[in-house]
Amino acid sequence: MIRSGSSPTAALALTALVAAAASFAMHHVGPLAAHVAPWAVLAMGSAAVAAVLVGSVLAPREAAAPVVMLSGRPADVARLDGSTIAFCSELHTRALPHGFFATLGSRFLSVYYRSFADSPHAVALIATVDGYPVGFLVGSSRARAHRQWVLRHCGFRLAAAGAVALLAHPRAAIRFARTRISQYRRRLLARGGDTSGGAGPVRDVAVLNHVAVLPGTRGVGAGRALVAAFESEARAGGAQTAYLTTLDGDEGAGAFYEVLSWEPGPVRPTADGARMQEWSKPLDSGVPA
Ligand SMILES: CC(C)(COP(=O)(O)OP(=O)(O)OC[C@H]1O[C@@H](n2cnc3c(N)ncnc32)[C@H](O)[C@@H]1OP(=O)(O)O)[C@@H](O)C(=O)NCCC(=O)NCCS
């Protein structure tokens, strides 16, 4: 299991708060009798120890590099379910740190990945070797229908988890206010009048949102197996073309998609100033991933 990054800040802040409150009480509320002082010191010490314990439980854990032993067997691909959602959210924060959602923390990401696991229009896959998860892929065979389903069934949960995450991550909140509020409002207003439920005349397309493989298990075919399973599920769902975007240049995974016969498209800047390249693949081309 991957653990995410940590700091003792919460424990130290709690300790300082308790010590300051006790000191204030001793000096201003009432002078202590001599026989009470040792008990007061003992109480303060216990409070400080308790604060450190509570703080260290609440603080995120130190990131421990996962140790993976591969048996050489090819990866198996199965549907993502509740038991592997934590794996996806933790791998997302490590393998895809440039995206905005990664800055919201693994609790928000768990709600986000749950929406893929539950949506009837999503393609949500997990790759395992010898029963251990090594990678995941999420996307949808009908992207428009999937977005509408998520908005209707998970919109409140996602918004609540997002609000809590923004409160807990001030830097993400500033980034959100600077780059996203007006964009999200525009999108919501644009969607307000659409009641087709994804069954309208515009043909829906498949979208691959995220794919990642544990660093220690890359290069042995798990990524290819996940993308191949995505393509065949999207094709079976009726999509003719699949799309994705990845960071332009060496930081992105363009070379990987090129090997899998996807075609490069335009490069566009994001609200954060990153450059994302679009890739597409006709699903009736018969070229496997
Ligand atoms: C991209 C990623 C999912 C690939 O997973 P993987 O399990 O290592 O890929 P595979 O082993 O199945 O590789 C399939 C083919 O792609 C090639 N390939 C994989 N990564 C590559 C890269 N970065 N550059 C060039 N070729 C690459 C492999 O050599 C292999 O080709 P071959 O079969 O001809 O030898 C993985 O590197 C990863 O998690 N990266 C970080 C997250 C990320 O960038 N995700 C994509 C964001 S959209």
* Strand portion: 15-25%
Number of domains as seen in the coordinates: 2
Could you state the order of secondary-structure elements as H and E?
HHEHHEEHHHEHEHEE
Total number of strands: 7
Termini gap: 29 Å
Rg over CA atoms: 24 Å
Mean pLDDT: 82
What does this structure look like?
The protein is an alpha+beta fold and 289 residues long. The chain has two domains: 9-58; 81-282, Aminopeptidase (3-Layer(aba) Sandwich), CATH 3.40.630. 47% of the residues lie in helices and 18% in strands. The protein has nine helices and seven strands. It has helices at 9-29, 37-58, 85-95, 106-118, 143-168, 170-179, 181-191, 222-236, 254-259; strands spanning 76-79, 122-129, 132-140, 206-213, 241-247, 263-269, 275-282. Strands 1-2-3-4-5-7-6 form a seven-stranded mixed β-sheet, with helices on both faces. Strand 2 and strand 3 form a beta hairpin. Helix 1 runs antiparallel to helix 2 (37-58). The chain is globular, with a radius of gyration of 24 Å. Residues 1-8 and 193-201 have low confidence and may be disordered. Coenzyme A binds next to strand 4, helix 8, strand 5 and helix 9.
